[in-house]
Each structure stands twice: as structure tokens, then as C-alpha cells.
Known about the structure:
The chain is α/β, with parallel strands linked by helices. It has helices spanning about 10, 25-35, 75-90, 110-125, 145-150, 175-190, 240-245, 315-330, 385-395, 420-425, 440-450, 455-460, 470-480, 485-500, 505-515; strands at about 15, 20, 40-45, 60, 95-105, 140-145, 165-170, 190-195, 195-205, 210-215, 220-225, 230, 255-265, 270-275, 285-290, 295-300, 340-350, 360-365, 375-380. The strands form three sheets. Strands 4, 5, 6, 7, 13, 14, 15, 16 and 17 form a nine-stranded mixed β-sheet that branches. A six-stranded mixed β-sheet has the order 8-3-2-12-19-18, sandwiched between helices. α2 runs parallel beside α6 (about 175-190) and α13 packs antiparallel against α14 (about 485-500). The longest helix has 17 residues, at about 75-90.
Amino acid sequence: MSEIISDPEKASKEKYDFIIIGGGIYGVMLCLEASRRGLRSLLLERDDFGQHTSFNSLRIIHGGLRYLQGFDLHRFRESVGERKWFLKTFPHLVKTLPCLMPLYGNGLHRPFILRTALLINDILSYNRNRSLPEGLHIPNGQVFDTVKTKSIFPFVDQKGLKGAAVWHDAYMLDSQRLLIEILRRACGHGATVLNYFEAYDLLKNQNEVVGVSALDKEDNETYEFKSCRVVNASGPWCRDIGARFHQDIPHLFNASIAWNVLLDREPLSDHALAVAPRKPGGQIYFLVPWKGKLFAGTGHAPWLNKITTTPMPSSNQLQEFFNDLNFAVPKLEANLKNIIRIFSGFLPARQSGSADLTNREVILNHSDYGGPKGLYSISGIKYTTARLVAQKALNRVFPQTRSHAKETGYSFDISQNDYRNRVLHSVNWRSSNEDIKPGDDLRSLMEEESVQHLDDLMLRRTLLWADPSMALEIAPQICSLFHWDELRCKLEIKRLKESLAVPRFERQHWAEKENE
């Protein structure tokens, strides 16, 4: 597989078809789709690739079942198609996931209604398994009786239980590896990508874009990159970039906060569990098995503050989140002491101060608003449909290339080297096998994937973060692989510790609540 090479000096001497600002899943998918059309792209990410919103998802690739409730068949079909693409393209990183929802005979959650909904879902997605390997097929949905439900989910609240609806979606085993492998593929087809580069000025001739100026945050050097088109795909910060390069356009992104929590608890089932507190308007949450732990999400609330790089739910929001989970599954008894990590980020809401998510992406040509010709901004909603939004954006920016986009070139190298099995898909660093030399494996990643910092390696290239205590224990050993001096190692370990920490205020508040 191709490597991600950081060579800003060389990159500044090239001319590109377009420059992408933002290295989350939307910017990365733009790179990938551009490579199919023979376009040369440069991606600039001010931090590490996929460091923010993209890293904080629940890792489910939704097939759109929930959209049937509102008869949104357009989004349903888009989601079914993109789920299929992920399964087909990344069979080593995306698997099918059985999901179970207990039914209690109230509202829409009744066996008859869900049986009908699952049948419609199967009929409308009749081609969902075409060209997929048999082991990745999405089975038909089913409704189980109470006996079968309790055998799959022993901790289910049995009071009033009528059975359960079961369907299948897809699940990213390691979302950070998925994003990096997409980047590697794009680089193999001509894309150039640079992390820790902050685009701070738009270069113009009259009112036409000719490039951007960007700061290398590692070396504090400024570079100019040439292109007559710039696409702002900076996620929650797209309005900031829009304002810097042209003007603030409010409907581009109104922030709400969403969060998922990884708990140091054993999974409650081998199925993902869709559960809701049994109260009026109770939200549905998912409890997902992940490498022997329990992933819980998604909490969601309005965001009234300034957009930051590390958003966190308040202590009251977290408490309400756990109260809902424990109400939905009384035997769960989860609390903040169980938290391994809080994954929080921003999602676009319909309007400022709302938690009601928008239902369509925004693809905006700034020249339509009196801005410079060649400047575009995009804002998306879901990880699942990021590639599709990239296609739509490219159709707008490069309409002449639409017919050249062929369904080829998605043949990723899925051979799993020993180091990937040991380091990337496992958190077991300690081994009695003297033949295993994880240091050599990590050096390969550092050289091939533009690793600039310790937390880049441990959080976004490997799974070593999943055991925070072990990650900090082995951090000095891993620092030695970088050949840093003692001061740099101390700073990098401090940075890693901050990245792994559950906010102290949240812990203190929770402890106070428990002692009341």
C-alpha cells in the first residue's frame, strides 16, 4: 500500500487541481474520489488526520432503517448504498453487526409494526448484498419472541417485554485505521496530504483563487500552495475558514454536541443493543460490543459556546446520559467511574442552539454569495455518507469530470502484515513471545503514515490508547523510537496523558453526587 509522505518543500513547487482544507473523513473522501477522476489534490490538516469529529463516532455504518420512519427514501437508499461500499471495499476493517431492539408493545415499538418495518427495509434494499462476499451479507430482519430475546440479551428489562426486533448494519473495527488507509490509497493515486499545516490566507488574483498560504506548525515555516480551486471541508470549523477567506455564512454549520462513551464493562450481548429509557420521549441509545468492552452512545445536546477543539458534555449532561442508560437497562449500573474515554464532537444542527440535526449536507460556492471564484465549502452530517457527499461536491466543482469517474481503483491492499495483527488490531503490547518486536512494527508506521507526535501513533495509527494505563506505561519506550531528546519526550508524554485523560472536573462532580 502507498505511503503518506510529508514533503512540504516539494508540495509547494507543484500546482494542484484543487486544495482541500480539513483532514477529517470528508476531506479524506474528497482526496479518494478525486483520484478516481484523475485530479491532483492537496489536503491540508491543521492537526492530525481524523483527530477530531471523525475519531469520535460510534463506529456504526448505518444502513438507513431509521429513515423509513419519516419516509425519507432518498437518505435510506444513500445509506444502504454507502454501507455496501464500506463492506465491499474494506472487508478487513468493516464487518456486519447484528442489532437488537427490545419491544414492549408501546408506540411504534410493537412486534407487528417492527415486523412490517423490517420487511419494508428488506424489500427496499433488495440489492444490498449484490457483489458482496457471502460472509459480509446483510441478512433479513426478524422479530424474536421473549425467550429468544432473553437468550441474546440476558440483562434485558423483562417487565412488559413482548420480544425484540433484530436487523443488521455494518461496523468499523478501527475507524482511525479506516481513515488512514483511505488516505494511503489516495496518495497512491497522486494525492498529496500534509498534517499539522494550517491554512491561514487565501491567495487571489483580482477576485479569483490562485492558492493558499499555510503554516507548518511543526517547523513554524510558511508555504504557498498553488491552485485555482480551494474546498473548505474543515467540519465544525468550516464557518471560521469561510469567514477568514470570504465571509461567515451561518447556514453552513450550526453546532450541536454529540458524545459516545467507552466503558470498562463487558459487553451485554454479541449484538448491538438499541435501548431507550421507558419514559415519554425516551431517546434510543446503542450499547455496542467493542473488543471486550462496551461502547455506549449517542448523547446529544445543543451547544451554546464557542467551538473548541476538545468539546465535552457537561457533568449534568453526562449524569443524565448514564441515568437514561441505567433506566433502559436496570442491571447495567454504569457510572463515570467506568469510563475509559469520552468521544465527543460537533454535529450540524438545523439552527443555532438546537440539538435537532440537519438532514442534508451543504455544498456551497462562495462566488454565489459575492465571494472569490474558485472557493467552495462543504458541510456533511454522517461518516456513512461522506464519500457520497464528496462525489456530489466534485460534481459541482469539476462538472466536466463526472463522466470520467469509474467504479474502479478501489482495490485496497488488505493483506494484514504481522505488525497490523499485533499492534493495530490488538491492545496487547506485553508478550512473552521473544520473536515479537513491536518497536520495528511501529517504526514502519512512523515512516509510512506521517506520524509527528506520540499521540498520533498511539491514538490514531494504533489501538494502544484503548488501555490508557498501559499506554502511559509504555510511552517512554515508544518515545525512544522517535530519537527525541529528554525534554521532547517529557512534552510528548504530557501531551499523550492529556489526550487520554477523562476530564477531572467531571470525575470530581460525579464523586460529589455519589456522596450526597
